[in-house]
Predict the 3D structure of the following.
Amino acid sequence: PDQETGDETTARADVGQTDTGADRGDSGQPLDVDRVPGPGPGPDDAAVDGPSEGEDRGDRVESMEPGQDESSIGLRVNVLGNFTIAGHNVGDRAKPWKYTKTPELILYLLLHPGGASQDLLMEQLFPEQPLNRPRLNQLVSDARTKALGVDEHGEYHLPHASPSDPFYKLTTSVSFDLRDFAHHCARARKAESPQVQAREWQAALELVTGRPFSVPHDGFGWAMPEIEATTVKVEEAAVALADLAMELGDHHLAVWATKKGLLTGTGYYELLVKRGRAALLLEDPEEIVRAFADLQMSLDHTGAPEEGMPDLAGHPDLADVYNDLSDGGRGRDRTT
């Protein structure tokens, strides 16, 4: 029986596959949001992924041009907020795939673009469980045919593995907001013009719609380092844009940048300070009220008292912003 659903479904065994006790076969490094790694070396194991019933073999599409924005091509996966695949929220009840582990498989392959062997996928997705290739075959088939499907040429976004290339890899027709985020951040760092830098930082943060990697259920333990790193990268991008916007005198953009950074939900201290200062410089009474409310909420979530002045003795700059916001900025020396 299928362990995900309990259905009495007989899994297809991979065509020509032999279990030789191969190595883990991790052919790709985890995706760093500051760079986009290329394919890794081929493995020694001999796993072969044959077509399930009703499937045809699909060839890999051509690679994306360097620097091209992936959002303009193919199927879209988003993780900088709710986890969505081709517009379907992973947490929704109505979705085309069958198994709860299917999105996790897709995410693993996106974060390891060099590909992964069967053994590695079983180890990462089903830790402390015995190797079960038929179960993994069901999962891969579900991802290939139900969740991802085919591109405009009728070729699978998740091609079949073969003896010459026995790794599961997604084609570049699957676009990924985190990879777009990486491209924009890289261009912002390389740009010499402050205006170009601001435009690229803004493009990166426009992709952020909520807490990164918001997933509706347990699992994804293997992804925690990437989730934590992405949270930091989003906050760093927000700080960079806020500072740049303040230098350019664009206080509206500075406020917007800090709001985007605070979507990570960590209540990052530096962003809270910049959020308050940008609101004060904007001199918009409504924005000052909102900034003060956001600051209070963040402090409450970190264990600060809900009533009265929180204990900010160790954070004098945050205390100053708190006091200035609490009186609507009226007592603030605008020349400082």
Summary: The CA atoms of residues 266 and 298 lie 8 Å apart. The first strand starts at residue 75 and ends at 78. The chain has ten helices and four strands.
